[in-house]
Design goal:
The structure holds two protein chains of two kinds.
Chain A lengths: L5 H20 L13 H15 L5 E5 H8 L3 H7 L10 E2 L5 H8 L9 H5 L1 H8 L2 E3 L7 E3 L12 H4 E7 L10 E9 L4 H19 L2 H30 L5
Antiparallel strand pairs in A: 1-2, 3-4, 5-6
Chain B lengths: L1 H14 L3 H10 L2 E3 L8 H22 L7 H10 L4 H28 L8 H23 L4 H12 L8 H9 L6 H33 L26 E3 H26 L32 H9 L8 H15 L1 H4 L12 H21 L2 H10 L5 H28 L17
Helix pairs in contact in B: 3-5, 4-5, 5-6, 5-10, 6-7, 6-9, 11-12, 11-14, 11-16, 14-16, 15-16
Classes of the chains: A mainly alpha, B mainly alpha.
Keywords (chain B): Electron transport, Heme, Iron, Membrane, Metal-binding, Respiratory chain, Transmembrane, Transmembrane helix, Transport
Pfam family, one (chain B): Cytochrom_B_C
Family (chain B): Belongs to the cytochrome b family.
Chain lengths: 246, 434
């Protein structure tokens, strides 16, 4: 009886997963390749964030205490290395920069990054951090392939170096489009090291977007296994009860 | 121990002698056909999800702040600072989507096996009312996190009422309590979502079950066990092909519950957003009336109906036709028992025309869902070339699907009222009797 349905269910499941996977791709961005289980990467990402980003960007939903607990750091580590505003360990991460100043400097207050990866995706954030290039036409001197006319000057330029665009051949009358980016002046890191750096930073921001992700993966497997075992027992019970139904 | 229970039982029975008969009528002496198949799990699963939504909803309410300034922050507070808050919220958000999964499958079962037909019209009507209230409940719940998609979704859906001639504009303001979705809107949607609609939903579910138990359950063969031979192991006057709901179907449903919960747990713990299908990326940005999301579209479960609105063009200077089409598409489902008057219930014994029409109807429904979710924006260029006009393709394809959707009901009316259907012989009893 049940066997008759297996092909249809397999087909339905396949279609569902297939379309979900196809939809999740969205625009073509390289995979960030980050891994939330890599605690060392999360710690490096946190250091990068607090060295290069927190000057302007807050994580208003993220508390210092939670970072210490989840990333295996001591309270002293976090208070000495990450907390530049004199906040308490239970306080959220709020940038030093007054919003009015930020508005003046950049024309737009730097966004809070607590939910950046939830909103844009890890691949987007990683690609964004790899796509800055020198642009003399822009007021801040920088532009970005993923987010054209981004208001942010490139904060990691010392690490990556300076990229310049390689223009594609344009049809007559059209503006030439950027085809790819080329490293003009290397920075302190090799391209491989820099990619690992942005991967770490992206990883940290993904963690910040949903700290519970660490917990749910930890518990999830046991919950699912328990429920499958329960289903098996329920099936045996059903078989026993239904023995006399013909 | 057993003694204590029976003493308490006797004590209650003495004071409320009517209770046990009610229990027996609906559980141990409700004789359900013994040939239920996989499709019959979804009713009990819908009830399970309803309970889940109410219980998790209560805990969410304890920490949620229904104000335009506090709502978004309070959801993050639940996700980060409330003990197990993330689990409660993911159970609620996953439950919302799975509610529609099981309800759509439950409804399809009813259509496929003719469960809406005489004498179960009332069961069907109450079920359709549940579906309607569920849609309102889901829509208002979707607005509460006050993300940017909540805001713009609310704006677009409420604006549908603005297409009504003369009173439309005032009606929209009356619904929102403001010129935009705002604090007043959020407050009232919260009240409706947590109190008014759940009460209505619960009442309708009780009536749906009561109406069902008056007439008895249909089954995959569509033959009424009440009209078959009498006498089973428990009662000489009850249907021979019926078995007591409890314990037979309670233990059977337990298997379905286990598997369903395992799937739900997998989603909750490993894919709570389901790639943006259950929780959308744009809703991680707080509501902002100055920033429009790139694509405004409803959650997946509303997309077939949303596509119907989009596909029906304006005419005579008003866009109300699309909205009428959407409500009409649901109204026709209400009228199904009177549109389809074929005597044979189950698809197993119905004419080829019916099977073909139902297949087309399902494909049209899924196709409209694909248009409503904008999946076709990626699919069409892949299939038909990069330089096609996607909007034109969407419209042409979608309008054919809308015609098929409505055509199903027209066909069914002609097919059964004019006696075109060539049915197969229906067995006297359910096919799995001994």
């Amino acid at each position: 009886m049940i066997k008759r349905y297996i092909p249809s269910f397999a087909l339905a499941l396949g279609l569902l997963l297939g379309t979900t996977a196809a939809m999740a791709e969205g625009p073509e961005l390289a995979s960030a390749g980050n891994n939330l289980r890599d605690t060392a990467s999360l710690q490096r990402g946190a250091h990068l964030f607090f060295n290069y980003c927190v000057g302007c960007h807050s994580l208003k939903y993220m508390r210092y205490q939670r970072i210490a607990d989840d990333l295996g750091l001591t309270e002293d580590d976090v208070m000495n290395n990450f907390n530049f505003t004199g906040g308490k360990i239970g306080d959220p991460v709020i940038s030093h920069m007054p919003p009015e100043d930020a508005q003046k400097f950049f024309g737009k207050a730097p966004p809070d990054l607590s939910l950046e990866v939830s909103a844009k995706g890890a691949d987007w954030v990683n690609a964004y951090l790899n796509s800055f290039y020198l642009d003399p036409k822009s007021q801040i001197g920088w532009n970005n392939l993923v987010l054209p006319n981004a208001a942010m000057p490139f904060p990691l330029w010392e690490l990556q170096g300076e990229q310049v665009p390689v223009m594609a051949a344009a049809k007559p009358g059209d503006d030439p489009q950027v085809a790819s980016l080329k490293l003009l002046h290397p920075g302190r890191l090799t391209p491989e090291q820099y990619q690992q750096t942005t991967r770490d930073l992206t990883n940290f921001l993904e963690y910040v977007s949903e700290p519970a992700a660490l917990q749910r993966r930890h518990y999830g497997i046991w919950v699912v296994l328990f429920l499958l075992a329960f289903t098996f027992l329920a099936y045996l019970l059903k078989k026993e009860y239904w023995k006399d139904v013909h | 121990m057993a003694n204590v229970f029976s003493t308490i039982g006797d004590w209650v029975t003495e004071r409320a002698p009517g209770l046990m008969p009610v229990y027996r009528k609906h559980m141990t002496e409700y004789y359900a056909p013994k040939n239920f198949n996989l499709w019959y799990y979804f009713g009990s699963l819908a009830l399970l999800v309803l309970v889940n939504q109410i219980v998790t909803g209560i805990f969410l309410t304890m920490n949620y702040d229904p104000s335009a300034t506090g709502a978004f922050d309070s959801v993050q507070y639940i996700m980060r600072d409330v003990e197990w808050g993330w689990l409660i919220r993911y159970m609620h958000s996953t439950g919302a989507s799975l509610f529609f999964v099981v309800v759509y499958l439950h409804m399809f079962r009813g259509v496929m096996y003719g469960s809406y037909k005489q004498p179960r019209e009332l069961v069907w009507l109450l079920g359709m009312l549940i579906f309607l209230v569920l849609m309102a409940e889901a829509f208002m719940g979707y607005v509460l996190p006050w993300g940017n998609m909540s805001f713009w979704g609310a704006k677009v859906i409420v604006s549908l009422f603005g297409t009504i001639p003369v009173i439309g504009k005032d009606l929209v303001e009356w619904i929102m309590g403001d010129f935009l979705p705002a604090d007043a809107t959020l407050n009232r949607f919260f009240a409706l979502h947590v109190i008014a609609l759940p009460l209505v939903l619960l009442l309708l579910v009780v009536l749906h079950l009561a109406a069902l138990h008056e007439v008895g359950s249909n089954n995959p063969d569509g033959v009424d066990v009440k009209h078959g031979p009498k006498g089973n192991r428990w009662d000489a006057l009850k249907p021979a092909d019926g078995i007591p709901f409890h314990p037979y179907y309670t233990v059977k449903d337990l298997v379905g519950v286990g598997l369903f919960l395992a799937i739900a747990a997998f989603i909750i713990f490993f894919q709570p957003t389901l790639g943006g299908w259950f929780l959308e990326h744009d809703n991680s940005i707080a509501a902002n009336n100055l920033v429009t999301p790139a694509q405004i579209k409803p959650v997946w479960y509303f997309t077939p109906f949303y596509a119907i609105v989009r596909m029906i063009p304006s005419a005579l200077g008003t866009a109300v036709w699309g909205v009428l089409g959407m409500f009409g598409s649901i109204a026709l489902l209400f009228a199904l028992p009177w549109i389809d008057v074929g005597k044979v219930k189950s698809i197993r014994y119905r004419g080829t025309g019916y099977k073909a029409a139902l297949t087309l109807f399902v494909l049209a429904f899924l196709g409209l869902a694909m248009i409503g979710t904008d999946m076709t924006d990626e699919l069409f260029p892949k299939l038909f070339g990069q330089d096609i006009d996607i909007t034109a393709w969407d419209n042409n394809f979608g309008r054919v699907l809308v015609l098929i959707y409505f055509g199903f009901f027209v066909f069914l009316w002609l097919y059964t009222h004019l006696g075109w259907e060539k049915t197969k012989p229906v067995p006297e009893r359910v096919t799995t009797h001994d």
